[in-house]
Amino acid sequence: xxxPANQTAGFLDCLAASLPAGVVYTHASRSYQxxxxxxxxxxxxxxxxxxxxxxVVEATDxxxxxxxxxxxxxxxxxxxxxxxGHDYEGLSYRSLDAARAFAVVDMAGGALxxxxxxxxxxxxxxxxxxxxxxxYYAIANKTSRLGFPGSVGPTVGVGGFLSGGGFGLMLRKHxxxxxHVLDATMVDAKGRLLDRAAMGEDxxxxxxxxxxxxxxxxxxxxxxxxxVPATVTVFTVHRSRNQSATDxxxxxxxxxxxxxxxxxxxxxxxxxxxxxxxxxxxxxxxxVAAMADAFPELNVTASDCIEMTWVxxxxxxxxxxxxxxxxxxxxxGTGRPDRYFKAKSDYVQEPMPSQVWExxxxxxxxxxxxxxxxxxxxxxxxxxxxxxxxxPHRQALYNIQYYGFWSESGEAxxxxxxxxxxxxxxxxxxxxxxxxxxxxxxxxxxxxxVNDDGGGVARARYxxxxxWGRAYFKANFERLAAVKAKVDxxxxxxxxxxxxxxxx
Length: 504
Ligand code: FDA
What we know:
Elements: H1 5-18, E1 24-26, H2 32-37, E2 55-58, H3 62-75, E3 78-82, E4 102-106, E5 115-118, E6 123-127, H4 132-142, E7 146-147, H5 158-163, H6 171-174, E8 181-187, E9 193-194, H7 196-199, H8 201-207, E10 217-224, E11 226-227, E12 232-240, H9 245-255, E13 263-270, E14 273-280, H10 284-294, E15 306-308, H11 310-319, E16 340-348, H12 354-364, E17 371-376, H13 380-383, E18 398-406, H14 411-428, H15 458-473, H16 476-487
Parallel strand pairs: 2-4, 3-4
Antiparallel strand pairs: 1-2, 5-6, 6-10, 7-11, 8-9, 8-10, 12-14, 12-15, 13-14, 13-17, 16-18, 17-18
Bound molecules: dihydroflavine-adenine dinucleotide.
Dihydroflavine-adenine dinucleotide binds next to strand 3, helix 5 and strand 10.
């Protein structure tokens, strides 16, 4: 059902009446297009055919978010929140339903991206519109002995990242980013501004990993910062298929999830090459010894290892090099994206047989091939109970991200790369988690299914959503739906994969 034009007009009038000029961008505004495109990261969703919002509200104050939600509820126009715009399916700024008007509340415009670091209290208040790079920069500006276990990519937005759990190179030592949320402020479907005490522990549980866009709009997060040593060590070593990369991958699956939790060793598999990347929270000698002990076949030497500060390691993995200035962390990359991409994810519970890696090499030779990123879990991840937060995949050995990317426009190129990623994902099915086949909500994948109204029947809508809901959240899905029924029974905050209210 389309939002009638008068509803949209009423909504826009409401915004104009309740928000200062300069905060609301409509199709009539000269900078509408540049504001909309300011954080689009995937060219797939920046085409003339992509349904666009009737307005973008560049919120710089909690009252702007409250007003946008109240106008939206009052006039039947849904609002999507956008923090960093990295959603893999673009759900923070596009809708698949071309007939229904929607608006975007963007958090990146000003005060809602502030970062305040309290070194003595080992905490920070961070606006949802900040990027993880801005968080790392602000911490490093005050101290070299605290850090935050955030994303590898520094341009990722805090709002979406924490909403889906969020992991990076310190996950084996410190778990998910959302495990370190101490408090939060948010606007709910009634337009109320709530903190942790006011929202209650059920909703506070749900917003720390239950997926972005489901329960309201989170404005800011109080984060616990984690201690980092004065010196950390990194390495990147490449081993090609004909340098026994197959055997190394087979062994890596057993070794990486059970290394000491100070050691993180991921693999990027591309072309006919495995790139082993490590961050070690300690000195070179410690990393060389840990590798010699657990994984001598990888043959890591002292000359492979580089000592640096923690924030330099963030720059090293973000930009693949040493000596980069920390200010690079502040670059949000607001230009037009440079690529089309599609990603999918899996969890592995048992080491895969060696022949699977042989098959993978042949997939990586195909026209249209992308890459695989293997992130090991274990350590702190495995110590947290799967129901403690919405993120359920705590016991996995590792996560696989399949990533296809291309720069040629046109349907033929898209079909080729989509075909590759769906093909390799299909091939892996026997070897990955089952019943349900797990997926990481922050690597959003609409192939897993999309919401519909279930003909208006709440039970049908809920049943449909369980298919992808259980992939992302396993047994936590039902509790998320119960929280949704309590805090947003009319399902105001919704998108193609949002959590429907649990039918009574
Ligand atoms: P975006 O603004 O698109 O929001 C994502 C979703 O959350 C949308 O549904 C949106 O409506 C909702 N949302 C946004 N702001 C909200 C708010 N304030 N309150 C409530 N809901 C909100 N992941 C990871 O775990 N580790 C990593 O290292 C990386 N690295 C990485 C690099 C790159 C280049 C990309 C494109 C993505 C990643 N990711 C990642 C995935 C990333 O965690 C995921 O895309 C996040 O949802 C992005 O959050 P943004 O705020 O940027 O996205």
